[in-house]
Fold these 2 entries.
Entry 1:
Amino acid sequence: MSNPSLLILAGDGIGPEVMNEVKKIIGWYGDKRDLAFDVEDDLVGGAAFDAHGTPLTDATMEKAQNADAVLLGAVGGPKYDTLDFSQKPERGLLRLRKEMDLFSNLRPAQCFDALADFSSLKRDVVAGLDIMIVRELTSGVYFGEPRGIHKEGNERVGVNTQRYTESEIARVARSAFELARRRNNKVCSMEKANVMESGVLWRQVVTEIHEAEYADVELSHMYADAGAMQLCRWPKQFDVIVTDNLFGDLLSDAAAMLTGSLGMLPSASLGAPMANGRPKALYEPVHGSAPDIAGQGKANPIACILSFAMALRYSFDQAAEAERLEKAVEKVLADGKRTADLLGPEGGTPISTAEMGDAIVEALDASL
Amino acid sequence: MSNPSLLILAGDGIGPEVMNEVKKIIGWYGDKRDLAFDVEDDLVGGAAFDAHGTPLTDATMEKAQNADAVLLGAVGGPKYDTLDFSQKPERGLLRLRKEMDLFSNLRPAQCFDALADFSSLKRDVVAGLDIMIVRELTSGVYFGEPRGIHKEGNERVGVNTQRYTESEIARVARSAFELARRRNNKVCSMEKANVMESGVLWRQVVTEIHEAEYADVELSHMYADAGAMQLCRWPKQFDVIVTDNLFGDLLSDAAAMLTGSLGMLPSASLGAPMANGRPKALYEPVHGSAPDIAGQGKANPIACILSFAMALRYSFDQAAEAERLEKAVEKVLADGKRTADLLGPEGGTPISTAEMGDAIVEALDASL
Ligand SMILES: [Mg+2]
Ligand SMILES: [Mg+2]
């Protein structure tokens, strides 16, 4: 049997630096855990534009479709701000999401004990937090037709359409229920069924899928505004939250900020199962390309490393190894190792991007 | 000159109790500040249904249209849960909002120093917070057509339409700029112009109104997901936030929860100026009718009293008197007076609804 394949698209800014540290981790799993991957590198975003005049070539798109998982660093930078809309670095990422049909966006909101003081929330509200927001990523009001700005009489009118089909809701609901079974078996579905028919359908379909296929999972429903409140009040009440594209956009970002560790958070975007049973999958840190610190060895590689941990868990069914990696990160933080972004007001001496990667590899060694 | 008129719709549950305390305050302003109001009482919600078989009679609607301001307590209760949709207590409130065309919903998020420990946020993040969220209340995706659930082939499809006209955006933008001039002169407008054309138009119109009429006010723009993050991280960066109906729904509730004083918060819903120059206006606490504690003298009247303070400021141009009332509330809290809902984990002896009203009247006396 051949090794599973990874396509690495390091991208722009700090992307290549943090991805270098991920490669150390990948190498470690091949050497020490007999978990070798066939790794291929390619370009995305500004880097692809510089080389090929497009933020994602057809050849790269083809490779992404055939890889067992795609790891992405970050895209974008001031150098590309004046490019035409269709050539902007972000279009490369959007093309990947669209053509791979990655409808289920997994956004963990986790708070490492060692970093709990970074949160604007009180320590007991946030320490040890571990929830997962599943955001529908390919439909809803950001994509629905009709859309646009037109004239009615003397007035401009702006229109967007929130539109969800039964099957679009069903597939992301299944994704959330599957996740819950691997976690604490609880799903809270959020919409505005009190004022939106698309929310009424959302609630109906989630309820139907639950009754027919996932009755063992605990399901609750909450209006999205109440959900925003409850996330701010006591986020630990949740396990998995499933919601639509727009609500998920706001709620996942709010939850991420609540952890105080925005720069530490990974994400996964999953699609339908491929012939080998693995879902189409793209893993990337939530943070951006941070062009201001690129190339200086200051970047924090943890979000990208934790994205690889998600790949271990969700693409390669290696939950125990994913946990080993997450625990290694936790240990390094508990030991007081900090990249520059993690130094609090009391200061201290930061370690470099590479030193952080090495420390995590050391912690992995120590775990054996 | 006749006195300004107030229509009081106390409603259901704790509504009548808390409104009794507001009446003490109104009486005080007539006696001690030569600010007399012509007060009329009427019914709304379940109380109106019990008396007339409808949650709002045409006669009451007519009075509301002609009053200088409407003060509302709260509507709803388990007794009315089985009523037909059109007869539910909430429909009375929705009819008022719709027929008075109250497009600008003012939701202050304030945190009293004495209550800062109730927040899930750290004390320094939230103590003394005073921001104002202006939510467009009569248009957007909760109202746009087409809407509904229909079949396409074998599938159900749920549709809602986000739709904003130039004039709908312009009038709520003006409302926010006017407010900012009475506060700290800063407006932040939030939308998703990066992915929604209705957001593009929102940003354009807000910018045009700013340049043409309010160039003296500081204006910034933020994507609504970043706005949700920033509200959680450092809410004191904002003064006035203006946003659409849906984003405002989530952001105002999240901000309210962040203060930790959800039961303390007032609101105003304003429409176009009437012949006398005053805006159509309805003032109400953010909290609900709390049927579980109704009639027991346990309710906290402060949110309703602060709603009257908003009426003083926004309907009757009595900013100094509004501030006097707010300071009186602050003093009573600083003195340690607490209704049952404000007792922390350390306990203490609660005072009754009436005792809280009396204490605030006393503090008003002391302010003279
Ligand atoms: Mg977002
Ligand atoms: Mg709401």
Entry 2:
Amino acid sequence: MRNFTFQNATKVEFGKESYKKLPEQLKKDGIDKILMVYGRSSIKKIGLYDTLIESLNAAGIKVNEISGVQPNPRLSLVKEGLKKFKETKSQAILAVGGGSVIDTSKAISAGYYYDGDIWDLFAKKAPVKEGLPIYTILTLSATGSEMNGNAVITNEEAQQKWDISSKALYPVVTYISPELQYSLPKSQTINGAVDAISHVMEFYFDTTPRTEIQDALAEGIIKTVIKATETLIEDPEDYQCRAALAWGATLALNGLLATGKQGGDWSSHMIEHALSAVTDVAHGKGLAIVFPAFLEFSKDKIMDKLDRFAEKIFGIDTGSKGYDSDLAIKALKDWYKKIGQPVKLKEIGLEEEKIEVIADNAAQIAPFGQIQDMDKKKILEVLKIAYK
Amino acid sequence: MRNFTFQNATKVEFGKESYKKLPEQLKKDGIDKILMVYGRSSIKKIGLYDTLIESLNAAGIKVNEISGVQPNPRLSLVKEGLKKFKETKSQAILAVGGGSVIDTSKAISAGYYYDGDIWDLFAKKAPVKEGLPIYTILTLSATGSEMNGNAVITNEEAQQKWDISSKALYPVVTYISPELQYSLPKSQTINGAVDAISHVMEFYFDTTPRTEIQDALAEGIIKTVIKATETLIEDPEDYQCRAALAWGATLALNGLLATGKQGGDWSSHMIEHALSAVTDVAHGKGLAIVFPAFLEFSKDKIMDKLDRFAEKIFGIDTGSKGYDSDLAIKALKDWYKKIGQPVKLKEIGLEEEKIEVIADNAAQIAPFGQIQDMDKKKILEVLKIAYK
């Protein structure tokens, strides 16, 4: 275990209809004008939009809006949102949606306090120093963005999907009401679960020695998410499984699993971001393809951990079968297949020549990775494994 | 999983010599006069006292002191500390020690903002509304007080060991430097581990259904603490085991395991507090005696959980042996015996007649408990099991 600093002041209001506490919270915090950020029609379909507008107006809170956030959220909308925030003289942001909506809100928040081009912050040309108060109502469990200071945005012109991370971007209060996710398309629930599991794995396979406690917590979260996801595929309205998946996804990336580690690996995420930037594939699908390929590429360096993973997550008696790191990777891929995820680039219709483009894209921010320094050549090898 | 609110803003600085960041932090927070609270000689023996005084003075921070905090910390010293805090016009409290020192500091903090008798707050005659800024340097991992808003104080005149709990009492920053615990007497390390495990068990045996994720985290923490403790008995200077035990003890009671539960059971703690109030036995020893007895008394109501506990913590194949909740309790007691803890009241020299006094003492705050409502009669039955 390495030295670490841990602090996460976000307040989580978790449970059925917990979001109904929002107007009271905003009033307590002295906020009477907000910019609400959301996606398209889904929050209207489930009645959440009307409930919120009505209750916020009743509490005397003026709601301005910006909508149209898409998966792999775009820089252009961030800029529009920032303009709107300034024009309407809003005091805080209310993000109603999943990770894309929350990340868009965080980017607006960071941009508000930066005079230059927002993309400078993502290109790490300038640090994020301050942020606006952000309140989130989560409608899709996946990214963990509801309880951390990270945001990933796609610059569609430059085909760059890059991130920012700052203490200043943690939401003030996050409302997680699992029942809001009952009507999600099955694929979104599954993509979210794969994203959450991938976050846990980024820390789990970090090679920092002697992180027994973090590894045990990681295994607990992955196993719970796996079980919950399997049930939700059959019964999307199982409240307890929605709750388990939701809380698991939040804990996966709220800093807890990072404690004592060397930051996590994140190579799979970096490569997947390039894949999404080029092809617009859903992040959860991209990860189901890239992560096992990355593990395959790195297996010699993480033998022990793969062995433990096979045993603890999938109950494989690695002892009696001898030392075989492929068991873990095969079990993970089999589970992804079982829940309907692609595990090969071919399956999402990618042409083989595109691999080079994706590797170039990812290499823009190379070297990255904790397990090893990933450069273009290595990224290409991972993508080749992912293609085959 | 039940609805919950989770928030814990305490900043944890974890690692070798992390406490050296304290002067800089205090200056950043605009604090130049503190009241330092500590126990007796141990922080002087390990050189921590001199290092702190020197570095704080060098940073221009005036240090006032109150020392002499004992295990089962006393109300009289809290009152002395409060007087000193006011006299010296300190701006914040620096707690250097274990749970007793931190709890004393929290009680001073709560008392500062209350005009009446401090004990009113513990008797729940008045709520804790405000608190002073508290900084802690942890030298004994056990109570988890370094990352929560709880404090337990003994009113020695009334022989009452009672608690307060408030959002206002969370430390601002906590420094956990595992190497500060190298020279602890073996018994203190062991008592601390038993306390930490007991906190986890208070939540684990809470009967709220469908808390898979919390239970998995709980098992991860208990298993890690058990392993670390066994090594530390042999090699008290194993840094990684000190770190695992320390972080496990903090996570055991920082709110994480409480999420979705009905508050935990806490009967064992309430009964042990009465035992300590009457006999002054160390909390960790008292818990090693009371907790298994309480589980024995409650076993019909927590059969499934005991079964799971036996399997997950002690690797007992309960399936093949049939359903037998005694296996878990026996395994727990065996482990306590193995690490040298008493598991019977007889072993600490208690006279049987005293059981009635302890039950009366505990019954002052009855009914308590989540598994069942504990009244005097039931408390007495637990104590009888613990005696035999």
